[in-house]
Design a protein that fits this description.
single chain; 353 residues; alpha/beta; 8-stranded mixed β-sheet
Amino acid sequence: MRVAVIGAGLGGLCLAQGLRKAGIDVEVFERDPGVRARFQGYRIGLADVGREALLACLPDRLHPLLDAVTGDLHGRRVFHDTQLRQLRELEPMTAIAVDRHVLRHLLLDGIDVRFGKRFTGYRGTRAEFADGTHVDADLIVGADGITSAVRAQLAPDLRPSDTGVRCVVGRTTLTPEFESLVPGFGTGVSDGEVQLMLGLMRFRRPPREAGLEFGVELPDTPDYVRWVLLPAPDVPVKAVEGWHPRVRALVEAADPAHSAALSIRVVRPERRWAPGRVTLLGDAIHATSPSGGNGANTALYDARLLRDLLVEKAVPEAVEEYETQMLAYGAQAVEHSVAVLDQFLPERAGPRS
């Protein structure tokens, strides 16, 4: 069996690792010219389902490295006004955090990724690329994100919906001063209109140092505070004028290379094609809002489920069973993420096509 994975994001790479572990021939094709071509995101919460998928798909020798480059989240969730006066406190929580960029590098280890390959379409199970090359496979998996070129051919009328919300996401290197803003699981600061959400990414070990021990090249990423401003102001620093000095300092100290304004869009999965030898995974079929923390976890679970079914069944039966399950839980993940977004911005407009 030969599988062609279009897209070298977390879901596609997790699938590739799982297939390789099972002895299945797999190649990954990525349109970016290289692994560092663009910024690949921030800290994400790693739920049990996501961590278990990674452990199932990664080689056993990399399990300790995965643990080394994650971080523990635990404690209270506290909400403050703009002068850091506490408004309310929610029940303590525990979770695991991982940096998306670091995790992607870990998942690249040992995988044959063809960079600079922009997918243009498929004929049967032949994947074609903009440079005139092609590859024949028994299965094509579109793991190419919310603007998926594979989905555009497989289900052309299934398009992203705009939630009408924009946010600014930033990263500020951790200092003792900034760490004091997030004493527990997470912190929220609000003036009643603008919400600032803070969370820590504190690695158990420095990623580059830990990677060298396992012969894996990982980025030299420092501990940091990830912050999100909702809705997105034109100038983040101006949005927090008059706020507590420590809050202003955090936003002012953000790394410009790792800060971005994002339009929040979702893809609601629907069955609009007959099961066959082309399928979709992750954001390509069920893109969620960042709220709720289930986008990456759902993509990782997709990868594990599809790998397991391909090991157990013939390709057509495996794909049909995978899509039946994935479309159901993927829809739940999207709706949950939108509901959580509504909790932060109850006055927002509903999704638009």
